[in-house]
Amino acid sequence: MIHGNIFRIRRLVWLLLFALLWTGVRPAMGAEVFLSATRSEAEKIPLGILQVVAPSNLVQHSSEIRSVLESDLRRSQVFRLIHPPLFPELANGAEPTADVIQKAGKQDIQAAVWISLSQKGEDLVMEGRVYDGKSGLMVMGKRYLSQTQYLRSMIHRFSDEIVFQYTGERGIAGTRVVFSSVLTGSKELYLMDYDGYNVRKITNDRSLNLSPRWSPDGNWITYTSYRGGSPAIYTLDLMSGRLWKMIGYAGLNISPVWSPSGQGLAFAGTMDGPAQIYWVDKEGKGLRRLTMDQSDNLSPAWSPTGTEMAFTSNRGGGPQIYVMNADGTNVRRLTFNGDYNTSPVWSPKGTAIAYACRIDGRLRICAISPDGAKTAQLTDGPGEDESPTWSPDGKHLIFSSTRMSEGDLFMMNADGMEMERLTFSGGKNNGPSWSP
């Protein structure tokens, strides 16, 4: 019976539940026109890590600090990393003087970073400073104290502080990703850091769990589960561990997604026959049907303002992306290229909608402007790519693919460049959702 339900939900949601792998990425012509969130190399701020100072008993952490911080700052797309020469003045862990910083400035380093690591009891203390390469003055200093196992988290926090210092916007290094995986036999939900580290299981339903989505405040994860025998929508409070059923109408209750305000969520249900898009408040009450035709309507995705919603419908034959007002009015078809387009997700700044598109018989990740005027193919290569999710800064996408395994998660820039494989477990990892 469970296998029958699996096939039915796949048919309705048009999710093949694959994952992805790295090969070449071929952005379509014009991808940079409306997807470019990346500064040109000339626009990026030259940054160099002068030194990571640590006593002999902690020196093994120095390379990790440098590696993680450089990766975070590279992915921020704000900085151009420069590897400065060794300055004799910094021998034996000496703190940099204004003269040393200005020497670094003459090496084209605009932001000079210096880090020290020490120990306080059983905890690590990491102090990070950022200096202006021209004036030699310190522009930012932070101090973190935590247990050794949270060293990466301290580095991520420092990276995000640097990004905020130079842009006024939050970085993404401290964000997380939730996804589905069959690592333990049943399809459970897992949580990982944005860069693929620190993977941990967060459900133990021993069932089929699908389509996890974050609440806007990042405290809850809402998802579809068969734990009660039929597909219902549950919410997990990550702070308390409390789990409750929010929506359990007759038939399928799938693909939940919170409104930007957090006051309610949209989902697809079959209580009235074919799958339709519905809305409920944050208590799971006040049910309203938003789509009214007799086709299957699935995978709702809110615009950042909460005034519009993208979704998938087969009302024109095969599955295509449509957009409507949040109250269900003013429905318009958005995609016309190809016979299979599904799983839309709206970018945080509202400039693009990413989705899974079938091209030459394979699923790829594509993007389209909300007015439908501009489109771009973002992925290429073997395997199937699907289930895109945006980073909160709109500069990256994570998606699932079978290009290297039965299913893993990959990250790329919003224009399809600089792809990285994040998971290596081969656990049919799919359905990722990026935290706020």
How many domains, as an integer? 2
CATH architecture assignment of the largest domain: 6 Propeller
Within the CATH hierarchy, at the fold level, what is the topology of the largest domain?
A: Neuraminidase
What is the count of β-strands? Answer: 29
Task: Return the CATH class of the largest domain.
Answer: Mainly Beta
Q: Identify low-pLDDT runs.
A: 1-30
Strand order of the largest sheet: 2-1-3-4-5
Structural class: mainly beta
Shape estimate: elongated
Percentage beta strand:
35-45%
Helix content: 10-25%
Rg, nearest Å? 23 Å
Largest sheet descriptor? 5 strands, mixed
Mean model confidence by pLDDT: 91
The CA-CA distance between the termini, in Å, is 36 Å
**What is the count of DSSP helices, taking H or I runs of 4+ residues?**
5
Helices and strands in order, then pairings?
Elements lengths: L1 H12 L17 H5 L9 E9 L8 H15 L2 E3 L16 H8 L5 E10 L2 E10 L5 E10 L3 H17 L8 E6 L6 E6 L6 E2 L7 E6 L5 E6 L6 E6 L5 E5 L5 E6 L5 E6 L6 E6 L6 E2 L7 E6 L5 E6 L6 E6 L6 E2 L7 E6 L6 E7 L2 E7 L6 E3 L7 E6 L5 E6 L6 E6 L6 E2 L8 E5 L2
Parallel strand pairs: 1-2, 1-3
Antiparallel strand pairs: 3-4, 4-5, 6-7, 6-29, 7-8, 9-10, 10-11, 11-12, 13-14, 14-15, 15-16, 17-18, 18-19, 19-20, 21-22, 22-23, 23-24, 25-26, 26-27, 27-28
